[in-house]
Fold this sequence. Notes:
single chain, mainly alpha, 11 helices
Amino acid sequence: MWLEALKKKLLKGSKITTVSFLHYIRLFYRSVIFVVLLVCYIVDRVHGKETILTRMESIPAVLWIVWAVFVLEMIFRFFPSKTESPGCQKQFARNYIKSGKTDIKIQDNNASMLVLLIWISFNLVFGALHMKGIFDDGIMILLCSAYSVCDVICILFFCPFQSWFMKNKCCSTCRIYNWDYAMMFTPLFFVSKTYTWTLLALSVILVIRWEITFYRHPERFSENTNDYLKCANCNEKLCAHKDQLQSLWKQIEAYTAKRKSQLEKESETGDLK
């Protein structure tokens, strides 16, 4: 009941859609998980313990609840849903709305390979540090949790992959949208536990299914051939949030520059006096 009341309060008089609201819920509980893990790791290190895995496994109910939440999130991605982002839903035949055009344009396809190489190289550094004993399993778990928070931040606020590499219009047209869980769970490759490897394995299966669909039905992934990806058919409207954030940031920059200029003038006037 409280969740429904919170949802109505947030949606009332705002541009937050149901899909966006669910992203905020994910951001909340993923952030809580990260903070709790970080605190536990610091406390364990202070007391001379090497990893937080022992603490996690000492409370199996919590461990398996968190595991189940992420497993369910990934399982839902395998099926069409109106509460998921259009970015991951464009793979399904039911969401393919023929535009009448046949020219498939996916400008960010080559950039996706660059992102893959960068991500693998980036995480191989952490993996090497883990194998050298500099990073323990706890650090890899923390990395994974931090990635999970950053994943939602990329969707809601700012995505470096979109801005610096992919150059796609929005999340709806993102070529690598369903790579998110595999990227999130990459550090788990170095943590030899059943619950970590099952998360990683399921995320990889999700990517494989996504890539097979892409190469078999590229027309579903192109805004030029699939009207489902048009702004008019978007049920997420995250661009509005990002535009508001960018507008606020520009206002802050303008105010800061103006205030700095005023202080410099006051300083010069004071010097003259």
